[in-house]
């Protein structure tokens, strides 16, 4: 069935202001993308699903390409917020592991955004430099956690925090991609995630 916005969702979001309205439109766009594919990301289709005018969408996103860019940035912005919410731990290794679990939780809970963030959701979409900067900044929490492990002696003193973060990110994304492809059903996905990310971290142990 075609994606349809909840009754009154547009009106409620509009009443809460421009930021809430934009977020609501992106949630609807992400759902359309998942249920109907990239062809559904047109101003007319999104306006119909949101029960609003195309004028509103042009004001918010500028054009169809703006929706793709906004979905990409929103996905990484939500990831950043999720990682920042992880409670700090006196044990840097435990905190790093918790950040990793939060990353996977975000991918599992918001697969529509995750697909756009990693080039799977919208064929042909290439994020611009500003959008990539948002993506890079979203992993600052992971880099800080890696740096804390280096400073605490958990990882080698000559380890590079950026390399640690990139390695863990690559390992995490690889497992998540296989899980999303149906290769690690049920609880197996989380089990394989923990195993591979732990193995990736072990490469930097002091």
Architecture overview:
The protein is 71% helix and 0% strand. The protein has 206 residues and is mainly α. The chain folds into two domains: 54 residues, Arc Repressor Mutant, subunit A; 131 residues, Tetracycline Repressor, domain 2 (Orthogonal Bundle), CATH 1.10.357.10. InterPro entries: Homeodomain-like_sf, HTH-type_TetR-like_transc_reg, HTH_TetR, MT1864/Rv1816-like_C, Tet_transcr_reg_TetR-rel_C_sf. This is TetR/AcrR family transcriptional regulator. It comes from Kitasatospora aburaviensis. Keywords: DNA-binding, Transcription, Transcription regulation.
CATH architecture name of the largest domain: Orthogonal Bundle
Any idea how many domains? 2
CATH superfamily of the largest domain: Tetracycline Repressor, domain 2
Shape: elongated
| Largest sheet, strands/sense/barrel | none
Question: How would you state the average pLDDT, rounded?
Answer: 89
Task: Kindly report the CATH topology of the largest domain.
Answer: Tetracycline Repressor, domain 2
Helix content: over 70%
Order of helices and strands: HHHHHHHHHHH
Which range does the strand content fall in? under 5%
How many strand elements? Answer: 0
* Distance, first to last CA: 54 Å
Secondary structure elements and their pairing?
Blueprint: H1 9-16, H2 18-36, H3 43-50, H4 54-61, H5 64-84, H6 92-109, H7 111-117, H8 129-138, H9 140-151, H10 161-180, H11 188-202
Helix pairs in contact: 1-2, 2-5, 3-4, 5-6, 5-7, 5-8, 6-9, 6-10, 6-11, 9-10, 10-11
